[in-house]
Design a protein that fits this description.
mainly alpha, Fumarate Reductase Cytochrome B subunit, two-stranded antiparallel sheet, 4 helices, binds protoporphyrin IX containing FE
Length: 186
Protein backbone atom coordinates (compact mmCIF):
# COMPACT_ATOMS: atom_id res chain seq x y z
CA UNK A 1 0.00 0.00 0.00
CA UNK A 2 3.05 2.24 0.27
CA UNK A 3 3.59 4.76 -2.46
CA UNK A 4 2.02 5.02 -5.85
CA UNK A 5 2.45 2.93 -8.95
CA UNK A 6 3.86 5.19 -11.61
CA UNK A 7 2.94 4.23 -15.13
CA UNK A 8 5.86 5.75 -16.98
CA UNK A 9 5.42 9.10 -15.23
CA UNK A 10 1.97 9.74 -16.63
CA UNK A 11 2.63 8.50 -20.14
CA UNK A 12 -0.59 6.54 -20.35
CA UNK A 13 -2.99 8.66 -18.30
CA UNK A 14 -3.72 12.20 -17.28
CA UNK A 15 -2.22 13.22 -13.93
CA UNK A 16 -4.33 12.81 -10.80
CA UNK A 17 -4.61 16.56 -10.50
CA UNK A 18 -5.82 16.91 -14.10
CA UNK A 19 -8.35 14.12 -13.57
CA UNK A 20 -9.63 15.58 -10.28
CA UNK A 21 -9.98 19.03 -11.84
CA UNK A 22 -11.63 17.66 -15.00
CA UNK A 23 -14.39 15.86 -13.10
CA UNK A 24 -14.90 18.46 -10.35
CA UNK A 25 -15.29 21.22 -12.94
CA UNK A 26 -17.50 18.99 -15.12
CA UNK A 27 -19.95 18.37 -12.24
CA UNK A 28 -20.02 22.04 -11.16
CA UNK A 29 -20.34 23.39 -14.70
CA UNK A 30 -23.11 20.99 -15.73
CA UNK A 31 -24.94 21.81 -12.48
CA UNK A 32 -24.71 25.51 -13.30
CA UNK A 33 -25.87 24.99 -16.89
CA UNK A 34 -28.87 23.11 -15.48
CA UNK A 35 -29.62 25.83 -12.90
CA UNK A 36 -29.27 28.48 -15.61
CA UNK A 37 -31.62 26.72 -18.01
CA UNK A 38 -34.25 26.09 -15.32
CA UNK A 39 -33.73 29.36 -13.46
CA UNK A 40 -37.19 30.79 -14.20
CA UNK A 41 -38.84 27.77 -12.56
CA UNK A 42 -36.52 27.65 -9.53
CA UNK A 43 -36.86 29.71 -6.30
CA UNK A 44 -34.99 33.04 -6.21
CA UNK A 45 -32.63 31.64 -3.57
CA UNK A 46 -30.93 29.62 -6.29
CA UNK A 47 -29.28 32.68 -7.86
CA UNK A 48 -26.61 33.23 -5.13
CA UNK A 49 -25.84 29.50 -5.29
CA UNK A 50 -25.48 29.72 -9.09
CA UNK A 51 -23.08 32.64 -8.65
CA UNK A 52 -21.03 30.86 -5.95
CA UNK A 53 -20.71 27.68 -8.01
CA UNK A 54 -19.73 29.82 -11.01
CA UNK A 55 -17.04 31.72 -9.11
CA UNK A 56 -15.63 28.37 -7.95
CA UNK A 57 -15.56 27.17 -11.57
CA UNK A 58 -13.68 30.33 -12.51
CA UNK A 59 -11.04 29.76 -9.83
CA UNK A 60 -10.63 26.04 -10.55
CA UNK A 61 -10.45 26.65 -14.32
CA UNK A 62 -7.61 29.13 -13.89
CA UNK A 63 -5.76 26.60 -11.72
CA UNK A 64 -6.46 23.93 -14.32
CA UNK A 65 -5.20 26.06 -17.18
CA UNK A 66 -1.99 26.67 -15.24
CA UNK A 67 -1.63 22.95 -14.59
CA UNK A 68 -2.30 22.14 -18.24
CA UNK A 69 0.42 24.52 -19.42
CA UNK A 70 2.92 22.75 -17.15
CA UNK A 71 1.84 19.17 -17.93
CA UNK A 72 1.51 17.58 -21.35
CA UNK A 73 -1.49 15.27 -21.75
CA UNK A 74 -0.77 11.58 -22.37
CA UNK A 75 -0.72 10.64 -26.06
CA UNK A 76 -3.95 9.43 -27.66
CA UNK A 77 -4.12 5.81 -28.85
CA UNK A 78 -2.36 5.43 -32.23
CA UNK A 79 -5.66 4.35 -33.84
CA UNK A 80 -7.17 7.82 -33.35
CA UNK A 81 -7.32 9.53 -36.76
CA UNK A 82 -5.52 12.82 -37.38
CA UNK A 83 -8.78 14.74 -37.97
CA UNK A 84 -10.12 13.42 -34.64
CA UNK A 85 -6.97 14.58 -32.89
CA UNK A 86 -7.28 18.01 -34.50
CA UNK A 87 -10.94 18.34 -33.59
CA UNK A 88 -10.37 17.15 -30.00
CA UNK A 89 -7.51 19.57 -29.62
CA UNK A 90 -9.60 22.49 -30.89
CA UNK A 91 -12.57 21.62 -28.68
CA UNK A 92 -10.32 21.29 -25.61
CA UNK A 93 -8.83 24.76 -26.04
CA UNK A 94 -12.27 26.25 -26.74
CA UNK A 95 -13.41 24.58 -23.49
CA UNK A 96 -10.63 26.23 -21.51
CA UNK A 97 -11.66 29.59 -22.98
CA UNK A 98 -15.36 28.96 -22.24
CA UNK A 99 -14.78 27.61 -18.69
CA UNK A 100 -13.21 30.97 -17.92
CA UNK A 101 -15.36 33.23 -20.12
CA UNK A 102 -18.78 32.02 -18.88
CA UNK A 103 -18.28 32.72 -15.16
CA UNK A 104 -16.25 35.84 -15.94
CA UNK A 105 -19.10 37.25 -18.06
CA UNK A 106 -21.56 36.41 -15.25
CA UNK A 107 -19.34 38.22 -12.76
CA UNK A 108 -19.07 41.23 -15.10
CA UNK A 109 -22.77 41.54 -15.96
CA UNK A 110 -23.95 41.24 -12.33
CA UNK A 111 -21.29 43.77 -11.24
CA UNK A 112 -22.39 46.19 -13.98
CA UNK A 113 -26.03 45.98 -12.93
CA UNK A 114 -27.39 49.28 -11.51
CA UNK A 115 -29.10 47.18 -8.77
CA UNK A 116 -26.19 45.17 -7.44
CA UNK A 117 -26.87 42.26 -5.09
CA UNK A 118 -24.23 41.36 -2.50
CA UNK A 119 -21.86 38.79 -4.00
CA UNK A 120 -20.80 36.09 -1.53
CA UNK A 121 -19.19 32.68 -1.65
CA UNK A 122 -22.05 30.45 -0.43
CA UNK A 123 -22.79 33.11 2.21
CA UNK A 124 -19.47 32.39 3.93
CA UNK A 125 -17.59 35.53 2.89
CA UNK A 126 -18.01 38.41 0.52
CA UNK A 127 -16.49 38.54 -2.96
CA UNK A 128 -15.53 41.75 -4.75
CA UNK A 129 -17.43 43.10 -7.71
CA UNK A 130 -15.67 43.06 -11.04
CA UNK A 131 -14.28 46.56 -11.71
CA UNK A 132 -16.77 47.74 -14.32
CA UNK A 133 -19.05 50.80 -14.42
CA UNK A 134 -22.59 50.20 -13.15
CA UNK A 135 -24.47 50.78 -16.37
CA UNK A 136 -27.52 48.99 -17.64
CA UNK A 137 -26.24 48.82 -21.23
CA UNK A 138 -22.96 47.19 -20.18
CA UNK A 139 -24.78 44.71 -17.97
CA UNK A 140 -27.14 43.89 -20.81
CA UNK A 141 -24.36 43.20 -23.32
CA UNK A 142 -22.43 40.94 -20.92
CA UNK A 143 -25.62 39.12 -19.91
CA UNK A 144 -26.12 38.32 -23.60
CA UNK A 145 -22.56 37.00 -23.87
CA UNK A 146 -23.05 34.93 -20.69
CA UNK A 147 -26.13 33.30 -22.14
CA UNK A 148 -24.79 32.79 -25.70
CA UNK A 149 -21.50 31.23 -24.67
CA UNK A 150 -23.25 28.99 -22.12
CA UNK A 151 -25.41 27.60 -24.95
CA UNK A 152 -22.38 27.14 -27.21
CA UNK A 153 -20.71 25.26 -24.34
CA UNK A 154 -23.71 22.97 -24.03
CA UNK A 155 -23.58 22.16 -27.77
CA UNK A 156 -19.84 21.41 -27.69
CA UNK A 157 -20.33 19.33 -24.56
CA UNK A 158 -22.73 17.05 -26.40
CA UNK A 159 -20.00 16.55 -29.03
CA UNK A 160 -17.30 15.99 -26.36
CA UNK A 161 -19.34 13.36 -24.47
CA UNK A 162 -20.45 11.66 -27.70
CA UNK A 163 -16.79 11.41 -28.75
CA UNK A 164 -15.79 9.94 -25.37
CA UNK A 165 -18.56 7.34 -25.60
CA UNK A 166 -17.71 6.52 -29.25
CA UNK A 167 -14.10 5.80 -28.27
CA UNK A 168 -15.22 3.68 -25.34
CA UNK A 169 -18.01 1.64 -26.94
CA UNK A 170 -17.45 1.68 -30.72
CA UNK A 171 -13.68 1.98 -31.15
CA UNK A 172 -13.08 0.31 -27.75
CA UNK A 173 -9.83 2.21 -27.32
CA UNK A 174 -8.24 3.74 -24.21
CA UNK A 175 -9.15 7.40 -24.78
CA UNK A 176 -11.63 7.56 -21.90
CA UNK A 177 -9.57 5.40 -19.52
CA UNK A 178 -6.88 8.08 -19.60
CA UNK A 179 -9.30 10.49 -17.94
CA UNK A 180 -11.03 8.11 -15.49
CA UNK A 181 -10.11 8.21 -11.80
CA UNK A 182 -8.42 5.04 -10.62
CA UNK A 183 -8.57 3.24 -13.97
CA UNK A 184 -5.13 1.90 -13.03
CA UNK A 185 -1.94 1.95 -15.04
CA UNK A 186 -1.80 -0.19 -18.12
C1 LIG B 1 -18.61 20.33 -18.31
C2 LIG B 1 -18.11 19.17 -18.57
C3 LIG B 1 -16.77 18.92 -19.18
C4 LIG B 1 -15.76 19.80 -19.49
C5 LIG B 1 -15.72 21.31 -19.29
C6 LIG B 1 -14.67 19.02 -20.06
C7 LIG B 1 -13.47 19.55 -20.50
C8 LIG B 1 -12.41 18.83 -20.97
C9 LIG B 1 -11.16 19.38 -21.39
C10 LIG B 1 -10.79 20.88 -21.39
C11 LIG B 1 -10.36 18.36 -21.77
C12 LIG B 1 -8.93 18.46 -22.29
C13 LIG B 1 -7.96 18.16 -21.20
C14 LIG B 1 -6.56 18.56 -21.61
O1 LIG B 1 -6.00 17.94 -22.51
O2 LIG B 1 -6.05 19.50 -21.02
C15 LIG B 1 -11.11 17.14 -21.59
C16 LIG B 1 -10.66 15.87 -21.87
C17 LIG B 1 -11.43 14.75 -21.80
N1 LIG B 1 -12.74 14.65 -21.37
FE1 LIG B 1 -13.89 16.18 -20.76
N2 LIG B 1 -15.04 17.70 -20.08
C18 LIG B 1 -16.31 17.59 -19.57
C19 LIG B 1 -17.06 16.43 -19.40
C20 LIG B 1 -16.66 15.18 -19.82
C21 LIG B 1 -17.47 13.98 -19.76
C22 LIG B 1 -18.90 13.91 -19.20
C23 LIG B 1 -16.71 12.97 -20.28
C24 LIG B 1 -17.03 11.50 -20.48
C25 LIG B 1 -18.20 11.01 -20.74
C26 LIG B 1 -15.44 13.53 -20.65
C27 LIG B 1 -14.38 12.81 -21.20
C28 LIG B 1 -13.14 13.34 -21.50
C29 LIG B 1 -12.04 12.55 -22.03
C30 LIG B 1 -12.08 11.07 -22.34
C31 LIG B 1 -10.98 13.42 -22.21
C32 LIG B 1 -9.58 13.08 -22.77
C33 LIG B 1 -9.66 13.27 -24.23
C34 LIG B 1 -8.33 13.42 -24.92
O3 LIG B 1 -7.30 13.35 -24.29
O4 LIG B 1 -8.35 13.65 -26.15
N3 LIG B 1 -15.44 14.86 -20.36
N4 LIG B 1 -12.37 17.45 -21.11
C1 LIG C 1 -19.97 27.66 -14.68
C2 LIG C 1 -20.32 28.90 -14.74
C3 LIG C 1 -21.67 29.39 -15.21
C4 LIG C 1 -22.55 28.84 -16.12
C5 LIG C 1 -22.38 27.57 -16.93
C6 LIG C 1 -23.69 29.73 -16.18
C7 LIG C 1 -24.78 29.53 -17.02
C8 LIG C 1 -25.92 30.31 -17.01
C9 LIG C 1 -27.08 30.10 -17.85
C10 LIG C 1 -27.22 29.00 -18.91
C11 LIG C 1 -27.99 31.05 -17.53
C12 LIG C 1 -29.39 31.22 -18.14
C13 LIG C 1 -29.36 32.16 -19.29
C14 LIG C 1 -29.57 33.58 -18.87
O1 LIG C 1 -30.66 33.92 -18.41
O2 LIG C 1 -28.65 34.39 -18.97
C15 LIG C 1 -27.41 31.87 -16.48
C16 LIG C 1 -28.05 32.93 -15.87
C17 LIG C 1 -27.47 33.71 -14.89
N1 LIG C 1 -26.17 33.67 -14.45
FE1 LIG C 1 -24.84 32.26 -14.91
N2 LIG C 1 -23.48 30.77 -15.33
C18 LIG C 1 -22.26 30.61 -14.70
C19 LIG C 1 -21.66 31.46 -13.80
C20 LIG C 1 -22.22 32.64 -13.31
C21 LIG C 1 -21.57 33.59 -12.43
C22 LIG C 1 -20.14 33.45 -11.90
C23 LIG C 1 -22.46 34.57 -12.17
C24 LIG C 1 -22.31 35.82 -11.32
C25 LIG C 1 -21.36 36.03 -10.47
C26 LIG C 1 -23.68 34.24 -12.89
C27 LIG C 1 -24.85 34.98 -12.84
C28 LIG C 1 -26.01 34.65 -13.49
C29 LIG C 1 -27.27 35.35 -13.28
C30 LIG C 1 -27.53 36.49 -12.29
C31 LIG C 1 -28.19 34.76 -14.15
C32 LIG C 1 -29.67 35.09 -14.29
C33 LIG C 1 -29.89 36.12 -15.30
C34 LIG C 1 -31.37 36.39 -15.42
O3 LIG C 1 -31.95 36.89 -14.48
O4 LIG C 1 -31.92 36.09 -16.48
N3 LIG C 1 -23.49 33.07 -13.59
N4 LIG C 1 -26.16 31.41 -16.21
Amino acid sequence: MMGTVFSGAGLTRYTRVAIALHWTIAVLLVTNLGIGLLMDDLPDGIVPIHKSIGMLVLLLSLVRLGWRIGHRPPPLPASVKPWEKGLAHAVHWIFYAFMIFIPLSGWIFTSASPKRHALTFFGLFGLPYFPVPQEKAISHVWHGRHETVAYLMLALLVLHVAAALKHRFLDRDRTLDRMLPGAGPR
